[in-house]
Structure formats: structure tokens, C-alpha cells
Design goal:
- By secondary structure, the chain is mainly beta.
- The protein has 3 helices and 12 strands.
- The protein has helices spanning 113-117, 142-150, 158-164; strands spanning 15-18, 21-27, 37-44, 52-54, 58-65, 67-72, 75-80, 84-87, 93-97, 101-109, 122-123, 153-155.
- Strand 1 and strand 2 (21-27) form a beta hairpin.
- The termini are far apart.
- Residues 42-104 form the Cupin type-2 domain.
- This is Cupin domain protein.
């Protein structure tokens, strides 16, 4: 595939709703010959994924607005607007949104993570965080976990969370 220069901004034609999160895919694997995915996400408390691990991707988050508490590699980071957090592959991690909403840029390398997400999302009907959608906390994750497993992403068991992310609150 020959890559092409392009300009893209968050819009309905490149945005989806996934588990209560508005995701605008600004660059995906096909755009970059698999080099990286780049997205803008808007999310609210309660839409966070469970603790998990990526076998293939490194993730870099830049916070535009709001605040996250990130749990990774025995550490806890509070990451606020204007700050970044890097989560290397093979390191179990999780995050909890500390503000009402959080607005994040995500660079994921190599590309391909959105291939999994795109099997489960829905076209955004508005450029807002969906309010009437199942989240990780309310959905049956059986199908989600089966898809993620095919793409090298695995949710941690309660025992793994206790061992590898001891500061992560047990209530989640």
C-alpha cells in the first residue's frame, strides 16, 4: 500500500462510540502502513477499561483536559492536562479517570489496535461522549475479551491485578 499525505480532524466520518467513549481515529494502521494508530478520545468516569496487558503495542497518552490516575509497573501516576504517560507493551496497566471527563490524544505503536476496536464500536451519532451506551463496567465482556485475545490484548484476572497492580482499587 502506498501511503499518502492527508489532513484529518475529529469529525463524524472518522469517529466512533466504543463502550461509552468517543474516539476519533486520526491515523490508523492502513494510513501508516501499520506504523502507528493516533486517536483523540473523550471519556467520562466509569468508561475505563479493566486492567489489561498488550503483547504488541506501546501506548503514549497526552492529556488535553482532565486527569487520569495510571497504574503500571508497580507505580501510580497522576497525569493531568499538558502531561504524558508512556505504557510499554508487556507491562500490565490500568487507569481511572479522576475528573468528570478526560480528553486524551493516544499514539499507539505499531498500528493495528483499532482493527480490534473497529470490530466492536458503532458510528458516532454526535461529537459527544455517548450517554446511553454500555461501558466496560456494564457490558458482558465475553465477546470483547475473545476479540482482544486475537489482537494480543488480555484482561488481567483478579489475582493478577492484586499481584501486579497492588495499588489499583479492589472495588473496580
Amino acid at each position: 500500500m502506498t501511503m499518502q499525505a492527508y489532513k484529518r480532524s475529529p469529525a463524524l466520518d472518522n469517529s466512533t462510540w466504543y463502550k461509552g467513549i468517543l474516539i476519533s481515529q486520526l491515523a490508523a494502521g492502513p494510513d501508516t502502513n501499520g506504523a502507528f494508530d493516533f486517536a483523540e478520545s473523550k471519556m467520562k468516569k466509569g468508561t475505563e477499561p479493566p486492567p489489561h496487558i498488550h503483547d504488541r503495542e506501546d501506548e503514549l497518552f497526552y492529556i488535553l483536559a482532565g486527569e487520569l490516575k495510571v497504574f503500571a509497573d508497580g507505580q501510580v501516576f497522576t497525569v493531568a492536562a499538558g502531561e504524558t504517560v508512556f505504557l510499554p507493551r508487556n507491562i500490565p496497566h490500568a487507569y481511572l479517570i479522576q475528573s468528570d471527563e478526560c480528553h486524551v490524544l493516544a499514539l499507539i505503536t505499531p498500528g493495528g489496535f483499532f482493527t480490534a476496536i473497529n470490530k466492536m464500536n458503532a458510528p458516532a451519532r454526535a461529537m459527544t461522549i455517548p450517554s446511553d451506551m454500555e461501558t466496560y463496567a456494564t457490558a458482558d465482556l465475553t465477546d470483547t475479551m475473545a476479540i482482544f485475545t486475537k489482537y494480543g490484548i488480555r484482561m488481567l484476572s483478579p489475582a493478577e491485578i492484586a499481584e501486579q497492580l497492588p495499588a489499583y482499587p479492589a472495588a473496580h
